[in-house]
Amino acid sequence: MSFQTEKALVRAHHAALKDATSETVAGALARHTSPDWHWRGMHPWHEQQGAEAVATAFWQPFLRAMSRVQRREDIFFAGRNQIDGFTSTWVVSMGHLMALFAAPFLTLRPTRRIVMLRYAEFHRVEGGQIVETAFFCDLLHLMRQAGQHPLPAQTGAHLVQPGPATHDGLLHQKVPEAEGAQTLDLICRMIGAINDHRQFSGPEEELAQHWHDDMIWWGPEGIGAAFTIAAYIEQHQRPFRTQLKDRAFNGHVARLAEGSYGGFFGWPNLSLTPTGGYLGLPAGPRADMRVVDIYRRDGDRLAENWIFIDMLHFLNMQGLDVLARQSSLG
Prior knowledge:
Blueprint: H1 4-18, H2 25-30, E1 33-41, E2 47-49, H3 51-65, E3 66-80, E4 89-101, E5 114-126, E6 129-137, H4 139-145, H5 177-195, H6 203-208, E7 211-218, E8 226-227, H7 229-243, E9 244-249, E10 254-258, E11 261-265, E12 270-274, E13 287-289, E14 291-298, E15 301-309, H8 311-316, H9 322-328
Parallel strand pairs: 1-6, 7-15
Antiparallel strand pairs: 1-2, 3-4, 4-5, 5-6, 7-8, 9-12, 10-11, 11-14, 12-13, 14-15
């Protein structure tokens, strides 16, 4: 299974978007998507149906605000979806949409400077069309670049995050199937360890089963990036496990791998209750996390992990409408 036909379709879809304007983007989207295309986007766009609706919700406002948009892609792979018994094929793209921030976008003020919108896309391809897409982006990260800081200081580092250290994340050519199977198996065993973490003597032992000690966790804005197992525990895992309770895993929509790369997304992945302190916020009602994780395997351990969380949706469910608050602040 080379997935070359599905990859070529998604690359053609990206090429059509490259030349699109706010006036032409609906037609560009329709060129490679089905009439009933199911698009999942982060807050405030959520779920849309069909190219016209997706253009109206996201792409037209984005292209009016951002000039000279470039897709700076770092990871590109495809695979069969383990969640539906390996029956559907998905293509994954991750990187940044780089542009000049020329006009207001949502409640963000333009800077007239370069901005880098982190993104991850999962496309389900069927019958020569894209029939389903999940589009995650890091709006809090974009706000930070625009000089707007809606949350307290985060525990990890704020960075415009690079792609893989090995610079081999664009899998445009056929990759041996066994490599992807090994990556997917490692990801699944790592998920199992998280769900049954009390079997280990502590987080160090748990993480050492599946991660290199010099792992890099490229977390979303609001949490930040962490380097090494010890720093990851301090800057993400411990706050997450001690300041959020009653965590329920809701499963994934898609989980796949090819070569040394793999990942998943859920809608939502997790439901949990903040007890106070997480993201610097007080205790709040139960809320959902829609999450993307993309991984790079190095040998028999995971080496890098890029994470996207629909933070604005998570906060909105707790009564904090970040976009409305930023608008009221002018």
